[in-house]
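If you are new to this repository, start here. Below is one unmodified record pulled from the training split, so you can see the exact layout before writing a loader.
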Amino acid sequence: MTVCIAACGDDGSSVVVASDRMLSAPFLTVEFDHLDTKISQIDKRCVALSSGDALCVQEILIGGLGAANQLQNPPISTLAEQIKFKFCDVRKQRINDLILGPRGTDFDNFYRGGMINQFPRDLAMILDNQVQKLVLGTTLLVAGVDSSGAHIYSVEDPGVMQCFDRLGYHAIGTGFRHAVLKLVSLGQHMSNGLNETVFNVFCAKKVAEVAPGVGYTTTMKIVTNKGTTIIEQRFLDKMEQAFKEQANPKLQKVSDTIKDLPYENADSE
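And here is the target side for that same chain:
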């Protein structure tokens, strides 16, 4: 329930990201705009956007990225890999808590330690099937700029990382199809200027608002090799107006053309 978008621009030297602020609380059966952003700062030149279980995302991102934090200007691919590793660790812990722990074992002992062979065959197959099906229901979008340019990665169940540099943009959440199709229709490409990329990403977010669970509040940031800049509300407001004008081009001219058609008051033959 959300939409998060990232697109490379400015000849691959910048990446623009956007998200809503809608949070879902299934235990309350409500959705609401939250004050906190879904764009987490991973490094001064890298951010992570998240969809799905917000509490799970906190588990994945809390405490930093271990050894990657000790590197000087680490590649974005390294930061994305560390997030993938933490994603897998959280999933493994969830498996231990919900499936294997109550049976007196854990993930490592069950598989590497050979405990799977000590259970009755039918039970072992059931447990293994439950392990394979367990998902965190969380997806992360990692976007940033390093010495080789702008990069975009996704990390999702069951711990898969994928690079979207060739495409130059990607989106996650319930509104991802709307957002990606809008970027396609706008001809978004990493060779586009930064201003155009910012507006295209904004338009993609607005279009995605028709999807269930996507909020109307927008947060946008620009990431370069110098750091991260948040796009001010006054510029979001200006783009909102431009988006409405783009969505209804020459509306008055269309209306006048319809009125000038000769058929409405024509005499019947």
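Two things worth knowing about this chain: The domain at 4-87+126-230 is CATH 3.60.20.10 (Glutamine Phosphoribosylpyrophosphate, subunit 1, domain 1). The chain has a mean pLDDT of 89.
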